[in-house]
Amino acid sequence: MENFNMLGEITSLLFMTVIYFFVKNLKFIPTIRNKTYELLITICMWFVIISVANLIFLEIKMPYQWYLASISTYLYLIASVSIVSLMFLYIYTYLYESHLGFKRIIPYLFIPSYVALFLIFINPVTNQVFEITETNRIVFGQQGNLSFNLLVLYSLVQIAMILFYKVQIKLDEKLALLSLPAASLVALVIQLVIPSQVMTSAAVVLPLLIIQFYIQRKDIIIDSSTNTPNQHAFLIHLKALINDEITPKIVLFNVKNLADINEKMGYQTSNIMLYQMVKDIQKVFSKGIIYRYSGSKYLYLTNQLTDIESKSLIQSLNELRKNEGEQHFIINYAFLDGSYIEQNSTHFIYTIEQTYIELKLQKENNLFILDHNAFLQFQKNKRIIELLSQVINDESLLVHYQPLYHYHDKNYLTYEALMRLKDDQLGFISPVDFIKIAEENEQIIPLGYQMLIKVGSFIKELKEKNIPLQWVSINLSVIQLLSKDFVKNVIAITKKYDIKPNQICFEITESILLDDYDTPKHVINELKAVGFVFSLDDYGTGYANLNNILALPISEIKIDKSVLYNAERSKNAYHILKSLIKGFNDIGLYTVLEGVENSKHDEMAKDLKVTATQGYFYQKPQPVEQILQNQTLN
Fold it and tell me: In this model, does residue 514 exceed pLDDT 60?
């Protein structure tokens, strides 16, 4: 036996074994491309084993040698055709997997392979491919170069596909892909020049190594701290399910106390705990793959989980967590059924992000199920964000104004500017809904500046029509108040649009007093020094005490309608409210009673001796044109 013939095969077998187990240890994203690659690795490993066995059966005398040599040669040829076909399929899926009609074309691509396999299967009758002589030597027939011809054909087609692929791909990816057909052709040339040198296995192993480290490794990006596939891997898996028209089912996990564990135990210990947590979750959820979405967020992706199974599995997982000792993770869960969601990865990502926001509000070890109603709310929120972005870009903010009736002057002297949002599908959207969303996405900042500009135009129109005005109130979010260069920008806008600072009253709520009190107070003082007026809105709904309120440089205090309605029901509440209003009046604050809806409320307001009232009993919020018309008539 010529030993040097075996050297390449045995070396290839060692490399292939390493690649095989390395690949098996990774959590493959089940795209067609990755499934093809995994199958290719498996067949290649068997191919190398068969190649070594075939050489042994041909060279070493043993019982049934002829039969063993014949069988191993048949298997060798079948494996050769399979490998050539799978290499071609891998490159084809890499380039065209996202194209329409991708799957329908695949069967037609392998017509040459079908013909080759047919000739191999009928070879026992025809001997056109090969035959084993009595001296156990292979004699090739008319189709003896079958596998070589197939390799050349597919290799040339692969090279053409890569070089002339219309969509731009990176050079390193293109070179890695070219390694498959190029290595095959080079090995084929060497084997034709030096017939005694077996190069087939080496030609397989080298490009697979290149593909593994340059392309496959890019797709299977593992979170290093927990050895878990990350968000990039999840997105590829999600898109694969959607492309295959399979409805994804997702269980989301949020570790609520990860920051506390990091602080108490250290990041290294915390990562070990996370790694163990993922292993526990994988034991319970065995039908899919767990991904680290980001930070404390994990998710489990499958297509075979009902909400009932999800509840049962999460209950089992909670039992595992309880047994882990004093230091354990507090985990909230959400079950997301993809059947509610339009089969588009963008919509899925938005829904996932919104679900994680919802999870933060849930109690510990709680399951939140994204039912149809919750999904519709998410979709509504998404539409609101889009509308707000459009309003910001188009500067098309709709502003209504509600006049406040001043008892002493018997006239409307102040107005509150109110944002309005309207959609063809959703109709008028409540400020309660869209203001919160605008704050969460920091859209409230550009909206606030746009509101100030429109108020300036409104003040100018009131002046032109000689309509009396003290100020126009604008609700001011804490996010706006603390935004960069807020004071400078507000002053610049008032100067540009010729607005007197004392004609603008910023309404703030007690929520600014809950966290960092000094910073907002400093900004308020800066604006107050320039001449802007401040009002404390919704008094009676928050947590502020009188000392903090008195420390604020406010000119007006607006008493929430809930306080009025409570005073309407309770004499004690009424007398307390009357005393409060007297105290506020005595120190020079304007007092406004909100929610005056009927004549009884109006009589109460007069008796309480408030400065002004705001409510539907006098006037509702109205567009600019209607305000100007009504006030001109008045």
Answer: no
DSSP state of 340: G
Which residue type, as a one-letter code, is found at position 278?
Answer: V
Q: Is the pLDDT of residue 399 over 90?
A: yes
For tokens 């709709």, the residue is: 398
Q: Which residue has the tokens 């209504």?
A: 400
Neighbouring residues of 560: CB distance < 8 A, sequence distance ≥ 6: 538, 539, 540, 541, 594, 595
Which helix (DSSP H) or strand (DSSP E) does residue 565 occupy? helix 561-569
CA 611/CA 113 separation, integer angstroms: 91
Is residue 210 within 8 A of residue 179, CB to CB? The reply is yes
φ, ψ dihedrals at 323, nearest 5°: -90, 5
Which residue reads 């309120």 in tokens? 549
Map residue 103 onto helix, strand or coil. helix
- How far, in Å, CA of 474 to CA of 448, rounded? 9
Residue 236 tokens, joined:
């590829």
CA 234 to chain centre: 10
Nearest to 24 by CA among 33, 11, 37: 37
**What does the longest C-alpha to C-alpha distance in the chain come to?**
123
- Asked which of 79-88, 147-156, 364-373 is least confident by mean pLDDT, the reply is 364-373
Q: Which region among 306-320, 387-401, 442-456, 557-571 has the lowest average model confidence (pLDDT)?
A: 306-320
CA 81 – CA 148 distance, rounded (Å):
9
Ramachandran region, residue 548 (left: φ > 0; alpha: ψ -120 to 50; beta: rest): alpha
Where do the H-state alpha helices sit in 28-96?
A: 32-59, 65-96
pTM check: above 0.70: no
578-602 per-position pLDDT tens digit: 999 999 999 999 999 999 999 999 9
Read off the pLDDT band of 3 (50, 70, 90). very low
Distance CA 549, CA 552 (A): 5
Backbone angles phi, psi at 460, to 5 degrees: -65, -40
Q: What angle do CA 272, 224, 170 make, to 5 degrees?
A: 170
Between β-strands 398-406 and 533-539, what pairing exists: parallel, antiparallel or unpaired? unpaired
